[in-house]
Each structure stands twice: as C-alpha cells, then as structure tokens.
Amino acid sequence: MRTGLMKKASLGLWLLVLLGVSYVAQGQQFRLWGVTSEGGDHGRGTLFFWDQAEGTFSRVHDFTPEEGSPFSSLTWQGDWIWGMTEGSIFRIRTDASGYEQVYALSRQVGWGPKGELIVHQGRLWGMTYEGGAHNQGVIFRLRTDGRGFTKVHDFDGKTGGYPRNHLVVHREKFWGVTSRGGAQKKGVVFSLDFDGTGYAVEFEFARATSGEPEGGLFPYKGKLWGMTCRGGAYNEGQLYYLTEDGLEFHALHDLEYPALGDMILYEGDLWAMMSLRGIHNCGTIFKVNPRSEKFTQVYAFDGAGGRFPEGSLTLHQGEFWGMTRFGGTHDMGVIFRFQPATGGFQKLQDLD
Fold first, then answer.
1. Which tens digits make up the pLDDT trace of 43-73?
2. Rounded distance between C-alpha atoms, residue 77 and residue 288, angstroms
3. pTM for the full model?
4. Where in the chain is the domain with CATH 2.120.10.30?
5. For the domain 105-255, what is the CATH superfamily, name and number?
6. Alpha-carbon distance 13 to 350, whole Å?
C-alpha cells in the first residue's frame, strides 16, 4: 500500500463508499474510498482512500491499460470493496490488502460499466454500458466469491440500450433505466425478475417527457425518482418521478444543467448535485421535498472549493461527502464534506 501519495491522482470521479472502521484506542473512525479515472502510474486512474482520523490520502492501486479506467462507483460487501473498470471486475479488502481482478470483461460479455454493483441475495449484479450481442450493454451477475459470472440480458436498442447506472429493488423485482433505446431512442425504464429472466420495458422516455437519463432510480414512498439529461425548459434534463407501477411520468423541476449522479435521502428530502450552474457556474448541491415537490438550491461551488461535482453524495453521521472533477488548488478536483443542517462546507483534499 502506498500511504499519503497524491501524485497524479487527478479528476476525481464518483464518490464511492464510506466504511466505518472501529479502532479500539481511537473510537469509531472511517475511511472514504474512491477512484479517479485518470492519473496514476499508467494514466488509467487510481483506487484510494481518505482517512478521517489522520486526515491523509492514500493511493492503494494504479489501474493498468489492461484493466482500463474506472467510471463506476464502489460497493462495500462484508470484508471486501468491489468495483469495476472498463475491462475488469475487481475487489480489495477493507484493510486495503489483497487487491485482485476477479473477472476480465470483454466486448462479448460486456464492456465499460458506468454504474456500481449491487448485492442481492448473496450475488452481485451489475450492468455494462457497451458490449454484448448488440454492443449496447448487458446485465450480469456473479457470486460474492468472484466466481460464476453470468450474462443474463443483452440490451438490443429497441428495448433499451447503453445503461449508465445501476439496478435497484422495487416491488419484488430489479428496476433500472437505460440512457438510450426505446421507440424514440431516449431511454427506457425496465424491470427484471430476481432470477435474471422476465426483462420488461415499463416506461419509454420521449421528447415530450425528456429523456437520456444517466443517473439511476431511487425508490421512495412508492415512487421511482430520477433525473434525465435532456428535455425540459433548458433541454438540460428534468427531475421526475414515476408512479409505483412505473407507468406515469411526472416532471417536478427543469434542470439548468444535467445532474450526473443519483439522489440520496436525508431528513425527508432527496439530495443531489448539479455539475454546473449556480452563482459561480461551478455546480450546486440541491434538494427536493417529495411531499411539497419544492426544489431548493442549497449550496453553490465556487471553484476554489471544487468545480463540476460528479457522482453522488454519500451520507455519514449527518454529513455529506463528495468529490468534484475540477477546481481546487490544482484544478484537478477536491474531496469535500458538507453539513446539510447548517450549510457548512469544508474542502478536505486537493487532488493533484
């Protein structure tokens, strides 16, 4: 493990997973794990963690050209952290030892995942953006021991293509969205049985309803919440929800710029980030109240504290943690935390 190294750890993409680690002498502490899509010894990105107790940044793996760059979030499962690069599925122990590539992706079985793995009933499930029989992505599963990779669905374009996110569990099925495909090629909402069969299109995005969603769905209060990247008053996407059965689309707010991540729930509000706009045109943190449907911009990035936030916020003990792609001292991104109750913002680490 390389401790405290920040060399070329640039372009922080996707806040990944927050791990609680118990130290007998120091009480409850945690590590913030993430990846970059560029930098490192091979220029293909790095795997790192930020230690809260020590306030240090540690680079633990440099991705190789064979692995490709990571563009998806990490998943915490037991003693392991799982992730994906363009061409591999990997894992590393939570103590930062034992990194291993468990499966090599390919154009035939799926390539270039953009969303994280999920754990369901002892298996890991995921999607790729490309590859498969029609080169428009696949849905797959594997066991948590890293074996038994199985492709369960090939996206074909007509019924969805190019998913950029992850599956969710809703109404005793998997649900997901694709960024393209469907009758108007604006993406679809689909469902899938837990055994990997029964793929069905539940809703098709259209020019009239906006489309091209990059973020995933968020089930809450019997509805499926999400964000699109095109359509609305500014043609930059909309914040929306679908009724419980996935059949009716309701637009709540016209976005001024696409939100390139997922929503999270805190104190009854749904929170997310917009990558640009705000008073400094560096991006914002916003929330929407599911009951009143009120949209509120809560914080505007200013460049020095980060610019162009990507990925999703992570909640830990009443605080949000996240990353930006640009901005900070070296204009290569920052790691930050934000207190939603008070609006307090703190830059924790400049990436360089």
1. 999 999 888 778 888 999 999 999 999 998 8
2. 30
3. 0.90
4. 105-255
5. TolB, C-terminal domain (2.120.10.30)
6. 13
